[in-house]
Amino acid sequence: MAFRDELWSAIDDVYAEILAHPFLQGLTDGTLPAEAFRHYVVQDSHYLRDYARALAVCAAKAPDEAAVRQFATDAAGAIAAEQAMHADFMSAYGSSAAEAAAEPVLPATRAYTSYLLAAAYGGSFAEGLGAVLPCYWIYARVGEALLEKSSPNPLYKRWIDTYGDEEFQSTVRAVLELTDRVGADLGTAERARVIEHFVTTSRYEWMFWDAAWRREAWPV
Question: Alpha-carbon distance 12 to 169, whole Å?
Fold first, then answer.
């Protein structure tokens, strides 16, 4: 079994819950409240800044030059996405990227990014890879699934098109190939830690969309 297959089998139930979530259902049928999508965009802009840092740490720990280039490029790409697509989305809501940056980082975002950075900084390259992989892979699978349905809402359609696009899918395939190569050399204990990180951040992916759906705020 390829390591990617072992990882995915550990989150089959999580992914099913993600696809069934009303946030994603609302994207495709156009019923997602604008306030929920705006919440998502603001928090995603916060998230991507720290995700880029985690990718940069993975680049620094990468086992070969190809992996260094992969993660360094993707770290820069995460920042570019935050600056471009999110700025356009905020503009559509009569706001700006600067205003989004001034809004607070909310609980699910803070928990997710804190976990990502701890895994990337504190663990091996493989552990960092396990932690950052769901944001690549789940978004690719979601984008693929939602692309068939698209959306009557042009903003939601653009989001779907971005992650269903072949360029993004190709990036994810490269990371999955690296995942299989790294997984082939892992010992039992490290392999278990990688799987644990992968499952945990997959759960955070569900929580991130759920937080936007609920318009989560700090309780006190």
Answer: 20
